[in-house]
Every structure is written in structure tokens, then in C-alpha cells.
Amino acid sequence: MISDIIKAAVAAVWMSYDKETMQRGRQILEDAVEEGDPDAMCFYGRTFLGEQYVWTGGGFPESERKGEDYIRRSALAGSAAGVLCCMRTGIYDDDIERDMPFADLAEVFESVKAEADEGDAFCQYIVGNVYFWGDYLKIYPDEKKRFSSEEDYDRFAYPIAAGYFEQSFEQGLSSGFGNYRTIYESELTDLSAERVEHFLSKLALAGSPLCCSDYGTWLLDTYDDREAEAFALFKAAYEKGDTLSGYNLGTCYARGAGVEKDLDRAFELYLEAAEAGHTSARFHVGNFYFLGRGNVQQDYRQALRWLRKAYEPHADWRAAAELGLMYANGLGVPRDEATAFRYLNHSMDCIDGPEDLWEEIAPDYLLALGKAYAYGRGTEQDIARGVELLDAAIEAGSEDARRHRMNFRKFLGKWRQRGNIRD
Fold first, then answer.
1. Nearest Cα to 419, choosing from 393, 389, 383, 367?
2. How far is CA 260 from CA 192, 212, 249, 255, 257, in A?
3. pLDDT tens figures, 294-329
4. I want to staple 233 with a disulfide (CB 3.0 to 4.6 A). Which of 47, 54, 172, 216 is the partner?
5. CB under 8 Å, gap of 24 or more: what pairs does 46-53 form?
């Protein structure tokens, strides 16, 4: 059984959403680790594993090696929660199976499940994860014969997992909400949008910065008249120290959603989130420098820096579009038609059509990609595709596209090139 003092420490770390309280809870865990408490080792280890395991607003040091070492030690010392956490972190192995003081994984699971059924929120979250991630089939391998496919298993497990997650939400633990939302979006259960919103709202009101941010996004995506509420939620998350929520807050200022439009404040918030690692914020910072928005002066060197940061980890198509324009036109970089085409074509592959482009770049983007295909610049010549894009650029307002379009005509069913304008 997890002791009451460890449960109190866990609640402080994972359910207070207050940095000082979280730090005190972690200190209780650290003291208990020194006294040899196996469960404290498990939860203390989790505090080292970053944003997937604990809210980063606690300011805890991150070390995957230390975190996994403490969790492994907890399993070997007799923490049932620790054994299941070893499974989730991918460090459960033959040594743990042989040396843990449990007869088998079933004994481990039933021990944690008993505490969950008695009302412990974190054990409810752990049990929900066992079902959600399919660890249940590792614990009870004979059960595999019941299911003909992964979807068949999910139809069985998702409703059970959702039930345990909901019990933890009722107590203010938000850790399982991402998995819960995945269950909802799978459409393999009878979870309704209203029910999901109920728990998201509840967790936001309980103070979870991540749920404040998620609920604000939910309101913007679902309703036309709740922008002010969404702004207030983003602001609450940001003021709790969730820097990445600054991206959503910045978007509200950029669009005038729930607050008076203020491009300069939007840029400040985007930059802060970008420096904290938010990919979309990095794109928007690059976009501000690329276009010269608000009081931000056009600066292609800075645009290149931030757009590359947005593109390289996750191939952000919006960043690719603007990088393509920079290389196509020699803006802050030497003109490079092959690199330009690679970026421009990647971004086009990621959207449904020109209508998805933003107004400020659409004419130049369609012109650049149209010229690449029409003249064979950076790619094999495909006049038909090039003309299609040049026509789209003309429709978007590009007079240069009209000049280039005059170089191509169809004769006897075949496209022909009449000239080669270089600019």
C-alpha cells in the first residue's frame, strides 16, 4: 500500500499546479527515498522525466538516466506502481521480472488496481494506462486469444481505461487527459463531445495549465462566440508559468480573438514561446520577420533563422513555404532553384490547395512554384502543372504571373514554351 504521506506528496506534485507546492511535494518524496520507501522512488523518478510525466512549471531538473534508475530501483524494492511504470517507460526487463518481490505481473497489477478501486487518483491513472497502452495483454498473455486485432482489443479496453481516467479527473489529476481524448477521437466508445468537454472544463477549473490551454483551443474550435473565455483560459495558463501557452495567447492578440488586436504583443508572446521550443511559435516569429509585421522590421536573416528552426524538427509546411520563397528569390540567401523547389513542393504536398495559403504570400508562392514547373527550374519541366499554378497566381493577384503565363500556349493539344523570362 502506498503510504498516506507519499499520496500527499504525489497530490502536491501532480495536482496542485503551483510551483512552490510542487517543490515541497518533491522534497517529501526525496526524503522518503533516502529512508528507502519504494513507492517514493517510483514517483521521485517520474519527476526527472520531463513534460510527458510532470508539468514543467514545477521547475524540476530533467535526467532520463536518473529518472529511469529510480523507477527501476522502486520496482526491485517492492513498489507495484514502480513495476507498472517500468513497463510504461520501456525499462521492464528480465532482471526486474526475476528479482522483483512479486509472484508475477498479475499480482502487481491487482495490487495497484485495488488501490485505484479504493479511490487513489494516481493508481486510477496507472490502471487506465495499463488498459489504454495494451500492457494488460503483457500482464495477462492468455487474454490475447480473445482479440482478433488491435482494434478489437481497443474496443474492449478503451471504455475501461476511460472509466479509470474519469475517476482520476474527478479528483483533479489531469495526467491521463491526452490518452482520454485519444479514446474519444477513436470513436470506439460512446464518449460524447459533451462528456469530454465536461472533464476538460473541470480540469481547467482545477488549475491544470495544460487543460486551460486545451480547453481554450476546444472553445475556439467548437464555438463562434466564446473567444473571450478562450483568451482568459490561455492567459490563466500563461500566468501560471506555462510559457508554451504564450503561443495561444499570442494567436489571440494576432487575430483580435477575445482581446483587442495587438501585433506587437503577439510577437512578444510568440518569441517567448519560440525560445521555449514551440514549433508553431517559431514559424510565427519567422513570419513576422519575413513579412515585417507590426513594429517588427523585415529582416530576412532573422526570418531564415526562425523558419529553419520551425522546419527542421517537424517539417512545418508553413515554414517550408516561406523558406521556398527565400531561396527562389534570393532573399537573405543565395538563389537556389533546387532548394527552393524542394521547400515549395513539400509545402504544397501538405495542403489541400492554394486556398489554404495565407493571403500575404499566396501570389508570390504560386508564382514561384508555377515558374519552377513551367520552366523546369529545380525540377523536371511540367508545363501543364506550371500553367495551372501560374493561373492560380494570377487569380491571387500576381501581375508577374500574367507575364510568365504569356510564354506558354497549347498547340495541337501539346503545351509549348515561347520564351524564358528569368525574373
1. 383
2. 34, 21, 12, 9, 7
3. 999 999 999 999 999 999 878 899 999 999 999 999
4. 216
5. 46/71, 46/85, 47/13, 49/89
Produce one character per residue of 347-364: b if its CB has 16 or more CB atoms within 10 Å, e if not.
bbeeeeebeebeeebbbb
Considering the entire predicted model, what is its pTM?
Answer: 0.85
Q: Please answer whether residues 279 and 273 qualify as being in contact, where contact means their C-beta atoms are separated by less than 8 angstroms.
A: no
Is the Cβ–Cβ distance between 292 and 298 less than 8 Å?
A: yes
d(CA 163, CA 128): 8
97: which 3 cell numbers?
Answer: 521480472
Cα distances (Å, whole numbers) of residue 197 to 126, 157, 203, 225: 22, 22, 10, 16
Do residues 167 and 113 make contact, with C-beta atoms less than 8 angstroms apart? Answer: no
Q: Identify residue 255 by its one-letter amino acid code.
A: R
* Other beta carbons within 10 Å of 148: 8
Unique residue bearing C-alpha cell 527565400? 326
Amino acid letter, residue 365: Y
The CA R_g of the chain, rounded to the nearest whole Å, is 27
| Maximal CA-CA distance, the chain | 88
Are 50 and 56 within 8 A, CB to CB? yes
Q: How far apart are CA 288 and CA 41, in angstroms?
A: 46
User: Angle 247-298-312 (CA atoms, 0-180°, nearest 5)?
Assistant: 50
pLDDT tens, residue by residue, 185-225: 999 999 999 999 999 999 999 999 999 999 999 999 999 99
* Spatial distance between the Cα atoms of 94 and 168, rounded to a whole number of angstroms: 31
Residue 405 reports pLDDT greater than 80: yes
